[in-house]
Each structure stands twice: as structure tokens, then as C-alpha cells.
Amino acid sequence: MNSPLLSLLFFFSLHLTSGQELSRTVSTSWGVVVGELVSPGTNDLPPVTQYLGIPYGSAPVGSDRFNMVKSAPKWTHSTKETKTLFASCIQTGLPELSETKAMRLMSSQRFDFVHRILPKLKVQSEDCLYMNIFVPERLQSMSKLSVLVIVHGDEYGWGSGGPFNGTTLASYGQIIVVTINYRLGPFGFLGRCDSSSCRGNEGMSDIVSALTMLNSIVIDFGGDHTSVTLLGWGSGASLVSLLMASPITNPKERLFKRAILLDGTALSPWAMSEDPQGAFLDLAAKLNCVTEESKKSPSALYNGGMDQVIKCMQDHSPQNISNAAQTIHAPSFLSSFAPIIDGQFVPNKPSLLFSPQYGNLFRDIDLMVGTASFPSHHMMGDEELKNGISAEKRNKMIRTLVRNLYKFHRNEIMAAILNEYTDWTNPKESSRALRDSVLSILSDSLFASPLIRTLRAHSSDETSRNSKTFFFHFGHETRSWSAEQANSGIRGSFSGDHIPYILGYPLSRKDNDEKLYYGFDSDDRGLSRVMMNYVSNFVKSGDPQMPTKMSKQSQMEETFARVAWPQYNQMNREAYLEIGVNRDNPAVVKNYYRNAHVGFWSGLVPQLHAAGKEGVTVPEEHHFLPDYFKTDSFYGDVRPFGGRSNIPIPPPPMPPTPPTMVKPSSPSPSSSSDQSPSSSTIASSSYSTMLSLTVAVGCGLLALNICVFFGMYRTCMNNNRGKKKLQLQYQTYSANHGQNPDVQYSINSPLALPPPPPSSNHSQSLMDDVLPPTINGIICGSLPRSNGNSHYSRGTVSSHTYTTTFPHHHHHNHEQACDKHERDRQEPLLSASQKTSIAGIRAGVSPTCPRHGRTAIANAAASRGNSLASGATLGGSTLDRDPMRSLPPSSIPIEEIQSFIAHSFAQFLHSIESINQWISPIESMSSNSVVSLVVYGVVAAFGVIINVLVLISFVRGRLASSQYSSIYILALQTLIVDVIFITIHLFYWIPKAINPDFLSVEGYDSFILHLVDSIGTYAWFHNALSHVFISSNRFVVLVFFERSFFTRRRVIIMAIVHHFLALTITLLTQFAIPCCRLSFDFSIFSYFNVPNGDLPNYSDIFFTVPVNTLSTVTSVVCYTTIFITVRRERTATKSMQISDAKRKSEYSYALQFASLAGVFSFCWISFRVFPFIIPLSDPNLVWVFGLTTVFTMVNCFMNALVYLVNNKDVQRNLSSLYGYEPTLIQPTTMHTVSSVGMR
């Protein structure tokens, strides 16, 4: 990270100076402390100043024993030397130290570790509340350092923070590392209750006191009190998770901001004391502080005698208390002296404190969770681990687990466990296979399942949150450790194997006697740098990949530098990083860690454990296992039968109601064991409701489409009735005004119109040839368009100037009338084709007749209008209506629509009110991800614009009406679906990839995501079927010349069938079929199929692949045949009776639509192929998955682009929209346009 040369020079210069130079003095609000500058044990890292033994609490002795800690007194008038470790807290639960006995109870790895740490635990005292601070020397000027506080673990009865050296991690990560001691066993977790309250979390009060003091003094060491992270393993992780949800850690602002849990959580069965009152009475009885009679009937203690018992216990020596505690054995896999629900530090059950309803404090903390392959490895004896176990021994261990963890239906639960963990491909399992199954059972039930439930609760999308969640599986094996042990066949990491790699022990070159861990090779050192980089980054930013990039000092680091570690959430399919399981590929991103077994422990077992229906009495014997009272049929210590006493311990208070309650939603697979037994029914009901709602919406849309197409059909039929009148008028007009075949006109010239008819008055005819047309005496063409003056004098014709003066309020109506007159004069057929013709013109009369034609009647109508209301008639008469814009009056309530739009817009603004919600996620993304998002956004925005422009042209020009090709109907509905599909990308999927909280609705995020996925799936299948219809149309028109096949009635039927098929396939693949619906993966910006356990992908097998294949095969066959036919049959133009230009145009359309089909084929083929050829673990290649998304959006707007570039109807309508004069189309071409296929 820093320059090794600078580090060496710096440290070498320190050794050349006097010994006093190796000290560092810091003045704090508590007093002055003097630390010692030491080397982290490796030459390429800067030195670290360690301050050992800083007191944070006064000695809890005498009357302070078994009570909350008091803050340490200040030493402002003296200097405290902090260069040596102080005593550890009293160890009341050390494992067995005799090798013969220990090897029957624990693994050899755990036995070796206990003996390595034991010398550092020999000095024990109640005066043990100290912290050790490791501050790195900063070679460059930096901001304040983030802080990592290590809460040691293993078990609640033994351990210490002092033996763990934080110098290497502090130096490498450039963070401040703090280790602390806290009271253990009965000194820290003596739970007891009386009639008013419960007490017993003194060990947690020690940690809170240390954090409170650290927040006050860490700034003096160059630290940032707003960036504190807690790290714990085992029991320490359980305490950290409880502090995440504890209101004690939030007096004004949180005492810490992030947390790292390693193989431990408060949801584990061993994390909380199940019988604190019983353990308290047992300890008091062994100290002779209560009589046996009081122990059997402790009502007097409960009603006020508790203080006397506590005072008696405080009079005993710590050694007596420790010896008495060691004789109290908790039931196997549980804890006697552990945290309890006291209403203060632990307000309620952890499952409730972590829930979305009451987990605001818990979810406010950034969380990283890690686990080893076999975290329960230390719970089995060494001989059993080496050689395996028998079926009888396996059954004993499972019986003990079931009896101690569950109260109801134990036989059913045990049968389910045996069934779940039996290898049915080889039912006669070997002794090692039986051992492996027991290891898996213990690891899953006591560690993995509770950890996954914690992760799911923290990452739940039921309520909005700003915190991050990450999960890793550490599976690396240390070769030297494996070589020391017999080849047991167990592959993977064991209990606590990740601790030395996180603390940097493989990099240290100190003597083995000074270290807790040793025996590492080069791969281990590279992996240690990786782990320290991840942890230090998380401490600084909450993201293990930011802000410091992975160095490339070793091959191991280069491998991890190429891997993007996604967050753990439902949208990322519960992604996690697998570390070191495979040495050839040590960094792999996977999904759904041990999902089947986790679902078993968090879903099925809690349902089996339900007490039963209310009002139904179940005999107590029903819950007994066979040989229930034979102690030799169990393994270890078991829970005693019945209760010790019936003391009504005060129930814990309910957590405060959060500001916004969450709507009920279907329970996730992480449901806790105390959930209602009807959770599966609720989930099924919610799913059925969702399915019913989606089916209803789909049927409604289908009915709406049918009504729309039926209305369009009726309108087209009505328009067909007016064709004869149009043809008669045109024939009469052509007969009276025949064109001169000898004169050639340009199509864009006004002279292309037929000449005006001869007038009865020759002088009037001459004036018409010279003067501009007039309406009501006003010269059309002489009116200025942009001047607001009330008088105008402009327009010179043939050296004569005509000046007309008129009031300003008549200007707009006169201008419209002149525009209309000019348009009618240039395009007589366009006006004649309107449904609403000018009253008074009889059939067979020329529209230009001076006495009975259009101009004469217009003048008469204008005169009548002027006599009634000034300017009213000219503005609203039929003469002034634009035939391209004439629409029926709307009956839609405009105010309601405006209100709805305003409300929706306000909701949209509310969802993006904080700009940090968008900037922060983008800053944490890799450069490839940012570039990919920009590309997606640009392509999607361009696609929306192109499609909307063409849709406007379709609507404005009424291209789906009867006078145009009927294939425009299919094109119109395809364009609409394309717009919807691109809009989903632009306004939901892309923003959601940046900010997971975008458009989040409490309790309905999963429903919204499912609904959007269904709409996207519908658009996908609609697109696939569109290529089938388009290629078939081109094939029929260009190969068989059957232009009459695609009649309007047939095309409408095809459109309805098109929608019906796409909707039906969508409902089947997204809801009816159990696996696997299509969704969007925000981590790779592409589509994926949501798995459902081990079920095969039926959606792909029966629908998705067949439909996509049909689309591609049909397109290939049709377009290949078209190209061959057109190339070979040069005379096909004559047989179709259209021009060579038209033939080339049709062929050009076929080429373009063939390219569309090629793009679509690339989309779905790449969607299938990329996951097999591109590793998800390589961040430099993950962007390739996004090509599928890009080409899908390109496919959605290429159809519109073809129309925009080549189709004259679309171009003309868009030109008229922007005020350009539309190109004139001769009447004879109208029949050609309507008879040709898709434009």
C-alpha cells in the first residue's frame, strides 16, 4: 500500500535515535498516555504505535461486582505508561486442558489453539477493563483514520482481547485497531429476574463503556469517532449483533457505524440464555447463598430477597465463583451464562429486534458477515473427526440437538433432519459420510442458517435503508495446518480459520513463540493481504472494494482484483464471495449459500415445531423422543425434564413502534423459528392474490385491445363508404379539367395542379391570374406572420401595390382562412376527401365553379359569420379545420388527469429527493459499471425518442385507417410494446441498478419488481412473435405476390392473436410454472432466470426457448427464401404490376427487417451462451453480459428507425407536424400505397 523503501528508511531512522524516540505521547481528555513504536513484523509496512492497557472502566469488585460498569477515573495530573498488557478477565469456562479428555470433546485444532493462547491468559483479575489501541504511522498526510474495535469471541466463558495483535492490520489498512476486554461467564452474564426487572448483561455494558470512552479520546489519536466498526467472532459476533439493535448504543448518535460478524449472531440457538434464573440459582446454591428449599421454591427471592443473594455472592472470592461456575454445565450446544432480555441492552427477542418492523437500529449499521466451511468443527472429538462415527453415535448427537433446541414434536423434527441429510444415492453411508452429515447438521443449524436469517433481515427491501450488506464464505485451507493433522478427508476451513488472515498474522516474521498463529506460505500471505484490504476498506467506507484498490503484489491479489463483490440482497440473488475454496480459482461470486439446507432450518423445522392448533390438547408424551429418560441415549448434557420452578419472569417490553408501519408481506425463507405456523398459508395466499391480480390486469388489457381494434375496424368500414364519393368527385373533376399530356411539371411545383377552369368573365379570369386569392376582400399572402401591429400594408403584384387595413382582432381568423384557402387551392383532393364537406356543393359540380364551387360558398359563409360574431365563423367553420388534425371533442376530465399527473410527479420527486442516494452508489461502482450504465441510458433514451416520433406520425397521419396499408395495424401495436419495454429499462431497471431504493414502496417492493418483470417478459415474447408475423408478411408479398392476403379483417385477427399468445406465455412462465421466471440482475445489468431450489427451468424448456427458436428459424427461412427468389426472378416486378423502384423498396424493407431479426436472435442466443463462456468472477468481463441488454433495446427501436428513414408516410406526417409543407402525392398513388404490404 505504501512505499516499502520509505517505510524502511523511516523505521531505520527511528532505530538510530535514542530509545526515547520510540515512544509516542498523546494527551487525551482522560489524561496523558505514552505508547511504544513497534514494527508490525514485516519490512514493507510502516511502524505502529501501540498503547496497551488504557483503562476504560473501574475495577468491578466488591459491591460493583455483577453490576453495570462505572467509568474509569481520569489521570489528568499524571502520565500513564501504556506499553504492557494488563490482566485478562476471570476465565470461568476454559475448555478441558487434559489431552486425554480434551481429544474426546474437541478437535485437535481447537486443543492446539487453546494451549497457544493459554500462557497469555494466565494473569487474570477482576480489574481487567482495559483497551489496547494500535495507531499506524502515516507517511503521507491523510484525513482522520477510521477505527476498528475487536470484540473477541470463541465462547462467553473464556477469551481475551489482549493476545490478539492488531499492528499488522493497522499498518496495512491505515486504520486504528482497538482490542478490548470485557467480563466473562457469571461475572459478565449472570442473568436474574425479580418482580420488577431483569438484569444480567454486565459484559455488554463493558463494551458500551469502552465505545463511549473511545468516541471521546480517539480523535486525539488521529481517529474519526464517526467511523467506528465493531468486529467479533463466535460469541463476540453475537454481542456485536445485539449492540446493532440496542438503543443503548444510540444516546445522541450511534457509537459505531459498521459491524463485521464472523460465525456468530444473536439468532443462533446458543447466543441467548434460555434459563438464566436456573443458572443463577444453581450458582447461588453452590456458593451456599441459597438453601435447597429456597432453590426449589424461590418465591421469597422473587419478591424481594434477590439483593441478599447478590450481596452473599459478592462476598465470595473470584476464585470461588469461578470454580463454582465451572461445575455448572449448560445443555450441549447451548449456553448457561449468556446475554438475556433485560429491557435495556436487549429490549426484546433478537428475531423481533432484527425484523423489518422493529429493526430500524439494526438496519442502520453497515454489515459484513463471514463464515468458515465448518464452524462447528471444534464441537466433535478428534477421533470422530479422523475416523468417522457410527450411525448410533450420529443418532445420539442429533437426539441431543433436537431435545435441547426444541420443545414440541421432537420425533417429527428428528425424522425430518435424518431425511434431509441422508445421501439417498448411497443410503448405506460410511462412517466418514456420517461424520460429514453431522458436521453439516451442526454447522447449518447453529451457524449458517442463523447467519443467513440475519443477512436477509438486514438486507430486506420491505423498508427503506441506506446501509450495505456483504457476505463471504472463507474456505481456504492452511497447508501446514492440514499437514499436521491426519488425513481425515474434510476439505475446507474450520472454526476461526479466518481470524489470522484478517489480522495479518501470515505477514508477520516474528518468532513463532510470540504469535498465536504461524506456519503460512506465500499463498497464505497473499490471501492475508486480500482479507486485510477487504476489511480495512469496509471499515473506511462500508464497501470492501472501496476506496483502496487491491494491490497486485502477488498472483492471489491479482485474482481478487478482477472480481466484483456485489451486495447481499434479493435483487442480487443473495450474492456472496467464496474465498479460497478452490486454489486454482480462489475468488468466485456465488448465490444462495447452502440455500436448500438453510430453507430447511428456517422454514420447515419452525413449522414442525409449532405447538399445534389452539384448543387442541396434545399429550406431553407426544413430544418425548424414544428412551427420553435414558441419559446414555444422548450425547453430552441434556435439558432437564420440566421446569425448575414456575416463577413468572417479567415479560420483556415491546420495542417502540416505528414511525411508519410496514404493510404485511409474504414471509421470506428466513422466517424465524417463532413465527406463526400459518406462515406457509399466508405466503400461498399472497402468491395467489398476486397471480389473480396479474391475470385480471392481463385480461383487462386484452379486452381493451379487442375493443380498440373493433373500434378501428368500424371506423375503417365507415371510411370505405366515402370512397365512392371521392372517386366520383375526382372523375368529374378530371373530366372537366383534363391534364395536358405534353406539359411536364415537377411534383413539388404548384404548377403540377390541374389548370383552373375558364371563367364566364374574361376580365375576372385575368385578375385571378394576376392578383393573389382573397377572402372577404383581404389579399391572402399579403398578411405578415410575426408583427403585432394593427395595420399592415404589404404585397406587391405586377408592379401594383394593394394596401388593406383591418382590425387586429380579425388577424388570426383571416390568417387561418388564407392558409386554408391556399392549402385547398394546392391540394383539392385532400379537402374533397374529408367526411365533412362544405354544405351546398352538389355531386358532379366542379369545386372551382365561380358560382357554385368552394370559393363562392366560402365567401357566403364568411359573410354570414361576420354578421353574427366577429371572427367566430372563420375560426371554427368546416373551412378552417385541418383534415389532419380534425378530432372529435374529448370527454376526459382534464382536471382529474392533471391532478393525477401532479401527484405522480410529486411521488417521483420524493423518491429522488436526496442526490446522495444517486451519487454515492455511482461513486462506489467500478468504471466498467459506470460506462455500462451510461451506454444503457443513452441507448434507451434514443430508443424512446425514435419510437415516440414514429408513434406521433402514426397517430397524426391515421396510418392505421382504411386508406393505408392494413399492416400498419401490426406495426402500431408493435411500436407501443417497444416503447413500454424501453421505458422499463430507462425508468426502472437502470435507476434501480444505481439506487436500490428507487421507487421503493414499503411492503410492495417484491411485488413491484415481479410486476415489472412480467411486463418486460410480455414485451419480450411480443417481440419474438412480431418477427414471426413480419417475416411471414414479407414472404407472402415478395415470394407469392399475394398482396390481397393481408386484408384488414385478417390483420386485426392476427393482432389479437399476437397479444393473446404473448400474454398467455407470460402468465405461464412468470406465475403458473414453478421455475424459473425471468427477471433483471442489477449486478451484471442483464436478464436472468430466478431459480427455485433445484427445480429444472421449466419456463425455458417449454416456452422461452421454443418461442425464441421459432422466431429465429421462421425469420431465417423466410428471408433466405426472399433473397433467393428476388435474385433469381428478375421478371417478378412485372408480375406484381408495380414499378422497379417499388420492387427495390420492398426488397430494401425485407433486408432491414432481416437485420432486426438478426439482432433479436443475437439477444436471446447471447442470453443463453454468455453464462457458460464468461465467468461472473471476472470483473473485467462482467460488462459483456450487458451487451444482451443493449442489443435488446436496439432491437426495440430499430423497427421505428426503419419507418423513420424509409417510409414516406411517416416522413410526411412528421414534416407537417413541424410546419413544413407536405409533399404532394398524386391521387393515383393512393391505391398503390394501400395495396402494398408493410411500409
From TrEMBL:
Basic and acidic residues bias spans: 814-827
Keyword check for Membrane: yes
InterPro entries membership: 7TM_GPCR_serpentine_rcpt_Srx (IPR019430), AB_hydrolase_fold (IPR029058), CarbesteraseB (IPR002018), GPCR_Rhodpsn (IPR000276), GPCR_Rhodpsn_7TM (IPR017452), Neuroligin/BSAL (IPR051093)
Pfam families given in the database record: 7TM_GPCR_Srx (PF10328), COesterase (PF00135)
Biased composition (Low complexity): 662-683
Residue ranges crossing the lipid bilayer per the database entry: 690-713, 933-955, 967-990, 1051-1073, 1101-1126, 1147-1170, 1182-1205
SUPFAM superfamilies: alpha/beta-Hydrolases, Family A G protein-coupled receptor-like
Full protein name: Nlg-1
Species assigned in the record: Pristionchus pacificus
Source lineage: Eukaryota, Metazoa, Ecdysozoa, Nematoda, Chromadorea
